[in-house]
């Protein structure tokens, strides 16, 4: 699919450049023909990607929210990474801590790759994530606070597709103690009962890391 | 190209793609897509992804890396390319070598945007730059620099035919309209008409309202979820809206109705499901900027014409909302 997508994009660019060149050096009818070829390629590739539901980015299939959600989300476990301090207390982590990763890309990668990796690689990744989260915690406690991905735009930074609350927006909500470990949970709950009903929620410790 | 088409179809083709158009609309599209792309570009840390520990990149297929020339371990180079993309986008907005700037920016964004997701998928759609890459390149291939450019870059302005201003705008409008059409098609293709059921919509609304890691707005979602009839209407309405949105390309009435409705649609999704769609500002590509300029200028007719193609604002009624 990567090869086909590359060829499609190259065809798009090459035919577009031919159109641009034609505007300068070619007479009317030929110019129109070049434009028709370009339009034809665009129509072919964009509709092929969409109607076959095979993404050939930037010719996208736009497969968004296409599933039927089960009444209880137990089959759709949601991940959660928490920081652990020296007392063993768990703390929620602000989504901005994972910069350069966004939370959804990080969770998607964890689900797809992380749990299949060997323990040494998992620990390397976890060590990096621990550093990111603890550095963010320190910044959140500092007078400047935790930055958005673009510090100059601040809250006007373009959000990711899925919004996330800034739980470390105020210093009083930020853990004081250094993180010494991370835990990754897989959570699910009964949508009808909502998350406030512990009996209908399930939480599985999928991975744990403690700084050596 | 001699198309083996019946005459009537050929006429429709020519009328659709090559009706006399406005250089102003093309210039507005250039500014619109360059500015929205710049907003997304400066809001992401693409260079940082390149600098992630190698474990993150371990499962990236070689073909995906070569497809975009995205490789691990080059954060400084990627940062330089981010700056280059930013500068070319500013140039495209300001009209400094606009077509060249659009081309370089489009190619650089094609390289940079996939960095956001490449560690788990090579297809970064719905992250804000998908349509921008296609639109910026289309603008580079068309006379998008014939209006609203800085004076010093105008001296090389080419004389374009009025029809040269229409097909690029139509293509960009098609890219935007395809988002909705393909999205509706994908829902039916994957889940069938069950997708529109009240229970499915209710569960989606509950999921995004109850999951505290994505819960920014949490009033509208549960309120809607408690009303099965509304959920049913939203489910069916969403599918119909997405599938018919493509008619905005052909019908002025559809444009007047569906483009504003799209804004309401995305606002509703934002407030009820906490999902942001960064392409919303790009719906302005359906506005006829000649008419806006006429309103702003308080004049009856537009006389700011290009290439000797004398025309008035009324020559492009099909583009107005």
Task: Please provide a brief summary of the model.
Chain A has 212 residues and is an alpha+beta fold.
Task: Outline the structure in words.
The complex is a heterodimer of chains A (212) and B (321). Chain A contains four helices and four strands; from the N terminus they run H-H-E-E-H-H-E-E. By secondary structure, chain A is of the alpha+beta class. Chain A folds into two domains: 2-52; 73-210, no CATH class. Chain B is mainly α. Chain B has two domains: 21-151, no CATH class; 166-287, no CATH class. Chain B contains 14 helices and no strands. Chain B has helices spanning 7-18, 23-42, 46-50, 54-57, 62-68, 75-94, 98-112, 130-140, 167-191, 198-210, 220-225, 228-244, 252-273, 289-297. The radius of gyration of chain B is 22 Å and the shape is globular. Mean pLDDT of chain B is 89; it is low at 302-321. Chains A and B meet through helix 1, helix 2, helix 3 and helix 4 of A and helix 2, helix 3, helix 5, helix 7 and helix 8 of B.
Which structural traits does this protein have?
heterodimer; A: 212 residues; alpha+beta; 2 domains; four-stranded antiparallel β-sheet; 4 helices; 15% strand; elongated; B: 321 residues; mainly alpha; 14 helices; disordered C terminus
């Amino acid at each position: 699919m990567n090869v086909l997508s590359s060829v499609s994009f190259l065809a798009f660019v090459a035919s577009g450049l031919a159109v641009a060149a034609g505007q300068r050096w070619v007479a009317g009818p030929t110019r129109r023909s070049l434009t028709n070829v370009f339009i034809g390629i665009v129509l072919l590739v964009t509709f092929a990607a969409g109607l076959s539901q095979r993404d050939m980015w930037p010719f996208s299939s736009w497969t968004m929210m296409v599933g039927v959600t089960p009444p209880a989300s137990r089959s759709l476990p949601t991940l959660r990474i928490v920081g652990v301090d020296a007392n063993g207390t768990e703390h929620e982590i602000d989504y901005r801590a994972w910069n350069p990763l966004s939370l959804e890309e990080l969770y998607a990668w964890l689900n797809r790759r992380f749990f299949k990796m060997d323990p040494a690689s998992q620990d390397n990744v976890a060590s990096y994530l621990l550093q990111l989260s603890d550095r963010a915690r320190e910044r959140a406690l500092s007078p400047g606070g935790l930055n958005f991905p673009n510090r100059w735009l601040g809250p006007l930074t373009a959000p990711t597709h899925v919004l996330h609350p800034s739980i470390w927006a105020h210093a009083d909500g930020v853990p004081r103690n250094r993180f010494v470990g991370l835990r990754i949970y897989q959570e699910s709950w009964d949508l009808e009962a909502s998350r406030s009903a512990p009996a209908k929620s399930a939480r599985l410790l999928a991975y744990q890391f403690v700084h050596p | 190209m001699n198309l083996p088409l019946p005459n009537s179809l050929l006429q429709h083709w020519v009328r659709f793609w090559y009706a006399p158009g406005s250089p102003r609309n093309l210039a507005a599209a250039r500014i619109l897509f360059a500015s929205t792309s710049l907003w997304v570009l400066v809001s992401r840390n693409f260079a940082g992804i390149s600098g992630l520990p190698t474990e993150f990149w371990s499962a990236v297929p070689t073909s995906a890396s070569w497809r975009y020339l995205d490789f691990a371990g080059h954060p400084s180079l990627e940062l330089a390319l981010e700056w280059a993309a930013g500068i070319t986008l500013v140039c495209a907005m300001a009209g400094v070598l606009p077509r060249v700037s659009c081309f370089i920016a489009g190619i650089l964004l094609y390289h940079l945007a996939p960095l956001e997701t490449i560690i788990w998928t090579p297809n970064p759609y719905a992250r804000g730059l998908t349509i921008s890459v296609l639109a910026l390149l289309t603008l580079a291939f068309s006379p998008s620099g014939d209006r609203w450019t800085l004076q010093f870059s105008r001296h090389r302005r080419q004389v374009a035919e009025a029809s040269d201003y229409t097909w690029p705008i139509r293509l960009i409008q098609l890219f935007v309209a395809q988002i909705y059409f393909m999205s509706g098609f994908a829902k039916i293709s994957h889940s069938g008409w069950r997708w529109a059921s009240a229970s499915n919509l209710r569960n989606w609304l509950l999921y995004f309202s109850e999951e505290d890691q994505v819960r920014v707005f949490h009033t509208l979602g549960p309120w809607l979820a408690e009303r099965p009839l509304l959920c049913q209407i939203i489910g069916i309405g969403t599918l119909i809206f997405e599938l018919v949105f493509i008619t905005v390309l052909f019908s002025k009435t559809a444009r007047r109705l569906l483009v504003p409705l799209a804004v309401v649609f995305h606002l509703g999704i934002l407030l009820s499901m906490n999902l942001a769609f960064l392409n919303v500002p790009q719906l302005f590509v359906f506005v006829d900027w000649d008419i806006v300029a006429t309103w702003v200028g308080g004049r009856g007719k537009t006389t700011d014409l290009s290439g000797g193609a004398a025309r008035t604002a009324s020559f492009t009624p099909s583009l107005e909302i």
